[in-house]
Structures are given as structure tokens and as C-alpha cells.
Amino acid sequence: MSEARSVPEAPTTAHDLTAFQQNILTILAEEPMYGLAVKRELEAYYGSEVNHGRLYPNLDDLVEDGFIEKSELDKRTNQYALTDAGHDIVLGQLEWVLDRFVIDEARADEVRTLLEK
Known about the structure:
- The chain has helices at residues 19-30, 35-46, 52-64, 84-101, 105-116; strands at 33-34, 68-74, 77-82.
- The chain has a three-stranded antiparallel beta sheet with strand order 1-3-2.
- It is elongated.
- It has one domain (14-116): Orthogonal Bundle (Arc Repressor Mutant, subunit A), CATH 1.10.10.
- The protein is α+β, with helices and mostly antiparallel strands.
- InterPro entries: Tscrpt_reg_PadR_N (IPR005149), WH-like_DNA-bd_sf (IPR036388), WH_DNA-bd_sf (IPR036390).
- Residues 24-88 form the Transcription regulator PadR N-terminal domain.
């Protein structure tokens, strides 16, 4: 008789994701992009080359976790877009940062109001 393996749960919050994955979600929060555009944004942020072997498995993981959607632009190009769950992850991370960073509570409330729109 074989032993049942437990399947790891999909991440549900930003702290369950790597910083690299969080950065991908943040980039896609602006607008849907194809893979190479995401790659360029990441390279600009990191100041160094991002290998395809790092980018595309992470994009696939985020698709599998339900944080981004992948659609076909043409036979060779996929486009990636943030899902509602991905949007919630990005907003949750921003709120966490604001809770720790913003000293002026009134200003923090203003920013939260803007994020909720």
C-alpha cells in the first residue's frame, strides 16, 4: 500500500512568494505584458540580465497559482495579465509596507483610499 503524499498548498499571500515573483506581479499590476516586456522591466529593476530559465518557470508558477493569466497574442508570443487574486497579493504587500513605513497615519489612510479604487 502506498503512502499518500500531501500536496503543498498554493501560496495565498505575498510572503508565500519569492521577491522575484512579487516583482513580476507588481510589474503586471500596471498593465498586461508579453514575457519579454516583463523581462526588460525586471532587468531594469535588477540592473542585470534575467535569464529565460528563471523568468518563464516563475511566470508558469504564478499562472498555476492563479495570480496571473496567460493568453496567446500570436503563435510565438504569450501575454500575461494580473488576476483578481494577483491584484490582491500586490495590494496586500503594499498595505504591509505602508503599515511599517508610513509614520503619518492620515497620509497612510490617503494612500490606502487610493489603493482601494
